[in-house]
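Researcher: Next entry in the queue.
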Amino acid sequence: GAGLKDQFAYVGLGEVDLERELSQIRDGLTGDPVDILELRLELHRLLMRFGDGHAQVRSNLPPGQPGDKYLPFLLVESRAGVVAVLPDRSALVEPDAPIVLAIDGKTMEEWVELARPYVANGSPQLVRRRALGDMREIDWVRRVLGEETGAPLTVTFSTVDGSQTVERELEL
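Model: Structure for this entry, 172 residues:
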């Protein structure tokens, strides 16, 4: 807590009670020794509430776990909605129905809301852009939500006019 008070300019800008929040994190941690990934996640969630878009919590461990899998595409905002593009951005994943309506049965709006605590408390555009980017690490996202990791992905695509939908199961 002392390091944050001395070195984090955003500490006094919000309505966050730092001491109370740190105490709740301390009381909520289980296990001996403490799981460093769990601690990092909780500290990251706390820092995001201050709204500093550059703040992050680092450790010498990767964010996920060995063997974690990733989305086989990138999610990109377009005028028509969120679209899935190949990782090299060379093509749409589903050209005839490019709009991503849902992943694993959750709409894109639901995914953004689930990610909100882990994204800096900034503009709606910043939150949405970062939430969509974080979805790339889908196994990490699933783990945070307490869901099964490694399972194939169910994606619901739609035509731009919304008249047709296509559901596909994709490997991670």
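Model: The chain has six helices and six strands.
Researcher: Noted, moving on.
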